[in-house]
# Entry
Amino acid sequence: MRVNGLSTKANIERAFSRIAERSTAGDHILVVLIGHGSAQGEASRFSIPGPDISAAELARILAPLARRKITFVNAASASGDFIRALSGRDRVIITATKTAFERNETMFPRFFVAALDSASADADKDDRVSILEAYEFARREVARAYEKENRLLTEHSQLDDNGDGIGTAAPVAGSGDGALARTLLLGSGVGIGRALSTDPALTPLLTEKTRIEQRLATLRAGKSTMDSTAYEEAFEKLMVDLARNGQAIRAAGAKPR
# Structure
């Protein structure tokens, strides 16, 4: 859905209302803020025409999008507080800075956007770029750019996708963050991935694969609250489903992720 007009609070609210009306449960909604941020007290804000919009106001605007998968990227300066304000179930929250007090102009958006259509960001070489891969690509390239310019790193990006409101700089297995972001894909893929996404025989198989991976991410995130036997049974079933899906993809002539 394309929206034209000034990004005032009123227009932002109207745009998200239309998104809520047109989207359904399970849809992936990607929101990227590029611009300048500020901090008033300890509250992060994003600069827009007219009064700036706060993290708390955006939390209220996003509330009607329950049951959707939301990736919210605030690539502005002073964006750190957005994680605590927006964190929740089925949400990936990414900020360019760790706190509201990292106020210098950020490089993160340049590299995150570049990752959307970059084979270099495709770390696992499956011809698709996940949110996690885009984040890691941008984080690495930011550090490399600062080092190349012999500058002190003044932005420390964070990612939260387990709903605890605490960001992780470098999500890895066991860190608590990264499981959901690994399953959410950007665009239609890079290289061969574009061809696969338009193949009528492969499209439903790849869609089902993503759904299984998302269920696995949700299951893993809730492991600590489950009976161990119930968890193992659910995990085994999903892994079997994933294996069968992989066989179907191979039979259709493509290499599974």
Summary: The longest helix spans residues 228-251. Residues 31 and 72 are 5 Å apart (CA to CA). The two ends are 29 Å apart (CA to CA). The chain has nine helices and nine strands.
